[in-house]
Automatic annotation (TrEMBL):
Domain of life: Bacteria
Name recorded for this polypeptide: Uncharacterized protein
Organism: Limnoglobus roseus
Molecular function in Gene Ontology: hydrolase activity, acting on ester bonds
């Protein structure tokens, strides 16, 4: 089900330091937009491991994982990134060109590597990574205008342009035909139609009617046509980021690249009243904001991600209002509950949460596939390779925890290890063995930067048994996985047990009304035998197990989901551990296992 590569961060014998997987990450991409003309903005939450991190590097992948497969993305893209920590934005620069903010990444599993100079983050501390990606579906983002017709449709001449049909453009500084200029036409943009090497026709933004320029002014000179983009965010609605990564007035259109136009606004320490955010001062007004921006509260952060924070009843939200481009006021519209003046939330302007552990469609959260750095003691990091349970998928686990962690293993270990997560829903040991070339190449590419592979935790199996494989076949496939990873330099190998798979007639609130999902998962089935052989050290050779199954399975009927226990979130004893019979849920299954899982084998 899952495979964890513990990254050896000793940096070689006698070195004492090395590069580590320094924080939890955002998993491998799943689905990018299939449409042209997109610009995607992501904001993902992360937490450092057990030691302070310096020389941070961010890795972003342009490729897609599908069930038991590795495929190209739809477009090359250009990406830039920054890190928000303790009220300050730290720009990221190309690791290969320290002066460059933007990196172009090929769609065939290209990898962007950024360095974040001047940033040091304490242990077990939250921070946010922002990114902006623009699809490279046109070689030219801007072209000079040399002629415009007075006709229906209007035809524009831009010699050597590379605009494609369906892309959108705005015009600036056009002489004569001033009706096209963005600054004087009510911020109107146009759709490119019937492009040739040097010309293109204009249609309206909705691409429904031609632009009739018969009555427009006669073109005289000058002007530029610039690409405009469909804005894709990792949550719905308008987003604006403090460093100008986002400067949008619409979640669909009207995006201006404008990096550097909007930046610098910062909230102060909020006033807490009756457990909610009553008000919040503006610590720095910033400049260049064209519209209001969202306010988000990161509970217990105390301005620097203080340890020991707990989830409040609900988080606070609101908005910041600009005057002449500066944020002059912050208004909480939902104060939230459970906030504490002793450990107040860190307020961010522009907000953004961790989003889905792996996204689907245009609302997919996208973030760094690995965050590495240096630590004083070179603590080992983890690479998690698994299926939907390890990615953190369930009906209720879309947003993860406050640290941006998803699933049992990441939530248990984040803050104690840096975690590199390579997960895919539906993945099996057999599928991984047949489709791992690009993932192994990715591991090689990261190792070439100084991060070395150490130990391994393997847990594939659920989807193998669900596809009809028997015990001998599953164990043979897992042995192949182990041997492949050992070939990459892995040392010790650990294995995770497999949870139940049942159906239920009462939403999994009792054991009596659960039925095995298939014969492999019933009484005396192969899955129980598989787990038993791991526990007795008679199954696959390993150096220890993580027994997740014993935490989420019923203590008497081990092939059924648990429905009783003491829950860390105070849930009733009859709360279900699964919502669908396959995945641990957020209400009880994940928190119970996180609270009770024995990970001493990793020591």
């Amino acid at each position: 089900m899952s495979l964890l590569l513990m990254m050896d961060t000793t940096g070689g014998a006698g070195s004492g330091t090395g590069r580590v997987a320094a924080a939890n990450n955002s998993n491998l991409p799943y689905i990018f937009s299939t449409a042209a003309n997109w610009c995607h903005h992501g904001a993902t939450t992360h937490v450092t491991g057990p030691e302070a991190v310096t020389e941070m590097e961010l890795f972003f992948l342009n490729g897609m994982m599908v069930v038991n497969g590795e495929v190209d993305a739809y477009y090359d893209f250009t990406i830039r990134s920054s890190v928000f920590y303790n009220g300050v934005f730290y720009p990221a620069y190309s690791a290969l060109n320290p002066a460059a903010r933007d990196i172009s990444v090929a769609k065939n599993w290209g990898l962007a590597r950024f360095k974040v100079p001047g940033l040091s983050i304490p242990p077990a501390t939250r921070f946010i990574v922002y990114n902006r990606r623009v699809a490279n579906d046109s070689a030219t983002a801007q072209a000079n205008v040399s002629a415009i017709t007075n006709a229906n449709p209007c035809v524009v001449t831009c010699t050597g342009h590379s605009f494609l049909a369906g892309q959108q453009v705005q015009f600036d500084s056009v002489g004569g035909t001033t009706q096209l200029n963005y600054s004087t036409n009510g911020n109107t943009i146009y759709t490119v139609a019937n492009p040739t090497a040097n010309t293109f026709e204009l249609r309206n933004a909705a691409n429904t009617v031609n632009i009739n320029s018969t009555a427009y002014g006669v073109y005289t000179s000058g002007g530029t046509a610039s690409r405009q983009y469909n804005v894709i965010t990792n949550t719905s609605g308008i987003r604006a980021r403090q460093d100008g990564i986002i400067n949008a007035t619409s979640s669909v259109n009207d995006f201006t690249l404008g990096v550097g136009l909007a930046y610098g606004a910062r909230a102060g320490t909020p006033v807490i009243s009756s457990g909610g955010v009553a008000s919040c001062p503006v610590a720095a007004a910033g400049q260049g904001y064209l519209s209001g921006i969202s306010m988000g509260a990161w509970y217990g952060a105390a301005g620097a991600g203080g340890a020991g924070a707990t989830m409040p009843g609900s988080g606070a939200s609101g908005f910041g209002t600009p005057t002449a481009g500066a944020i002059t006021s912050i208004t909480p519209t939902s104060p939230g509950t459970g906030q504490s003046s002793g450990n107040p939330p860190m307020i961010t302007l522009g907000g953004g949460g961790s989003g889905n552990c792996f996204g689907i469609g245009d609302q997919a959260t996208y973030g760094p596939c690995l965050i590495s750095g240096k630590t004083a003691g070179a603590k080992k990091g983890l690479i998690l390779l698994g299926d939907s349970n390890d990615a953190g998928y369930s009906a209720a686990d879309g947003t993860g925890d406050l640290n941006g962690s998803h699933g049992v293993l990441e939530q248990k270990l984040a803050g104690t290890r840096g975690i590199w997560k390579l997960c895919r829903a539906g993945e099996s040991a057999a599928g991984w063995n047949s489709n791992n070339t690009r993932q192994l190449a990715l591991i090689d590419a990261v190792a070439a930067t100084g991060v070395q592979i150490g130990d391994v935790i393997v847990g594939f199996g659920t989807n193998d048994f669900n596809s009809g494989s028997n015990l001998a076949t599953v164990e043979a496939q897992l042995t192949t996985v182990i041997n492949t990873i050992k070939g990459k330099g892995a040392k010790k190998v650990f294995i995770r047990t497999l949870p139940p798979f049942t159906t239920s007639s009462d939403a999994f609130t009792t054991t009596a009304n659960q039925t095995a999902g298939n014969t492999a998962y019933g009484a005396g089935g192969d899955v129980l035998t598989f787990n038993s052989r791991l526990r007795s050290s008679t199954g696959i050779a390993n150096d220890g197990i993580l027994d997740v199954a014993i935490q989420v399975a019923d203590g008497t009927t081990a092939w059924k989901w648990r429905v009783a226990g003491t829950f860390p979130l105070g849930a009733a004893s009859a709360t279900a551990f699964s919502d669908d019979g396959v995945h641990y849920n957020k209400a009880a299954g994940i928190p119970y296992a996180v609270n009770n899982l024995d990970v001493s084998a990793l020591a």
